[in-house]
Amino acid sequence: MQTSQHVLFERSEMKDRHLVRKKIREHIADKAKLPILIFPEGTCINNTSVMMFKKGSFEVGGTIHPVAIKYDPRFGDAFWNSTKHSLMTYAFNVLTSWAIVCNVWYLPPMVQEEEEDAVHFANRVKAVIAARGGMSVLPWDGGLKRKKVKETFKEEQQKKYCQIV
């Protein structure tokens, strides 16, 4: 990872997040450097939805080159459900599968609009990716796979449901 200039950080550390943002801005400013590959979901889910994007990668400026990736599970499923399978079981399944096949769509470049904040820009990019991959858009992040849902989020969803009904 050191040879390919990875930027490693601990998401829970505020200092690390600021340092990463600074390093990304410096990288973008240097036109001699290759583009940065960022997975703004921060996790991988079950291939049916696109989860909330972390806004940090959309706060640094520059042009976003969205890529939609969707796995085809017919020959082997790349998704690891850590609540059902151990790492060893997952690794065995991947290594003994016929193939891991995915569709990759390179979408037109996108830039942040003048009156758009980072969250709205991230959501616009996410919607384009989800539409191309035939996936649904989810308003929450991958942390819900491992943590309890906050009561405030439940209440917000209940209020939305009540308005529909």
Question: How would you describe this protein?
Answer:
With 165 residues, the chain is α+β, with helices and mostly antiparallel strands. The protein has one domain. The protein is 33% helix and 10% strand. The chain is built from 4 helices and 4 strands. It has a two-stranded parallel ribbon. It is globular and about 45 Å long. The mean pLDDT is 84.
Which descriptors apply to this entry?
two-stranded antiparallel ribbon; alpha+beta; 4 strands; two-stranded parallel sheet; about 160 residues; globular
Report the average pLDDT across residues: 84
Query: Main β-sheet: number of strands, strand sense, barrel status?
Result: 2 strands, parallel
**Alpha plus pi helix count:** 4
How many domains?
Answer: 1
Give the DSSP E fraction (strand runs of 2 or more residues).
5-15%
Question: Helix/strand-derived class?
Answer: alpha+beta
- Number of E-state strands: 4
Low-confidence stretches: none
CA radius of gyration is 18 Å
Query: What would you call the shape?
Result: globular
Strand order of the largest sheet: 1-4
Order of helices and strands: HEEHEHEH
Distance between the termini: 51 Å
Protein name: GPAT3 acyltransferase
Membrane topology: Multi-pass membrane protein
Pathway: Phospholipid metabolism; CDP-diacylglycerol biosynthesis; CDP-diacylglycerol from sn-glycerol 3-phosphate: step 1/3; Lipid metabolism; Glycerolipid metabolism; triacylglycerol biosynthesis
Keywords: Acyltransferase, Endoplasmic reticulum, Lipid biosynthesis, Lipid metabolism, Membrane, Phospholipid biosynthesis, Phospholipid metabolism, Transferase, Transmembrane, Transmembrane helix
